[in-house]
Amino acid sequence: MTILQSVLLGILQGIAEFLPISSSGHLAIVQNLFGLDELPLIFDVMLHLATLLAVVLFFWKKIAALFGALFRWIGRKSKSEDVPLLKMIVAVILGTVVTGVLGILVEKLLPEMPLKVVCVGFLVTAVLLVSSSLYGARLEKVEGTDVQVNAKKGLLVGLAQGIGTLPGISRSGITISASLFAGIDRTTAGEFSFILSIPAILGAFILEAKNLGEVASSVGALPIICGCVAAFVSGLFALKFLMKLVNKGKLGWFACYLVPAGILGIIFL
């Protein structure tokens, strides 16, 4: 793999990981179009790790607040304002467990998806984005709705994240959509979607870290570094852009790209 190829894949990963258009689906299509060999899993995980750093940097205040609430709870010094934060921590734990179980089942039971099926996933994601945006907007008009994250909602979003491991199904798209369907407000839905991704990506990296030396020798250390830097920078900008659209209730706009992309892919790939 050349440095240029790794940088392009990194940029694609950074943009598609955060924008709800499916990074895995786009990587599979780009590999096919440019005749690239199958990427080592650890290289894909390293790109995800780079985008994870973008998540941590972007949401560092929320993450710090969660750890603060956790440490106060451990020290039996919890405050009343810690309650929603502690509920989110429980939701992240439960959602991560569900994601892990479903992710393992998907990997073991489902074969590699043909590109046409991946493109169908684009259409499914588009439907989810539009419908969840409409539902979230309608729910905000209902007074007395519990918009906080809790254990039940965490399980639902964790299930969605597990389904999001399928190529063509956007992880960010399906988790934000599930959060909105669960009644979580827009801003918190975006936060929870990406905070929930942190343990999943870290877990995947730990499992594949043993192969890091092997991929460094086959792909090259410099292409890996360049790809990760590209993924981090592009991901940070994409995340900032996405959160603005989520807060404005414009998540469904991405269907304008996903629908034609999915239809063209089904026809020509």
Outline the structure in words:
This protein has one domain. Helix 6 runs antiparallel to helix 12. The chain has about 270 residues and is mostly helical. The longest helix has 27 residues. It is built from twelve helices and no strands.
Low-pLDDT stretches are none
Helical content (DSSP H or I, runs of 4+)? over 70%
* Whole-number tally of structural domains: 1
What separation lies between the terminal Cα atoms? Answer: 24 Å
- Tell me what portion of residues adopts beta-strand conformation: under 5%
Structural class: mainly alpha
In DSSP terms (H or I, runs of 4 or more residues), the helix count works out at 12
What's the number of extended β-strand segments?
Answer: 0
Element-level helix/strand string: HHHHHHHHHHHH
What's the alpha carbon Rg, rounded to whole Å? 18 Å
Mean pLDDT: 88
Characterize the overall form: globular
Task: Based on the model shown, name its key terms.
269 residues, mainly alpha, 12 helices, 78% helix, globular
How would you summarize the topology of this molecule?
Layout: H1 3-18, H2 23-34, H3 41-58, H4 60-74, H5 83-109, H6 115-139, H7 151-163, H8 171-181, H9 186-208, H10 212-219, H11 221-247, H12 255-268
Question: How would you summarize this macromolecular structure in one to three sentences?
Answer:
The chain contains twelve helices and no strands. With about 270 residues, the protein is mostly helical.
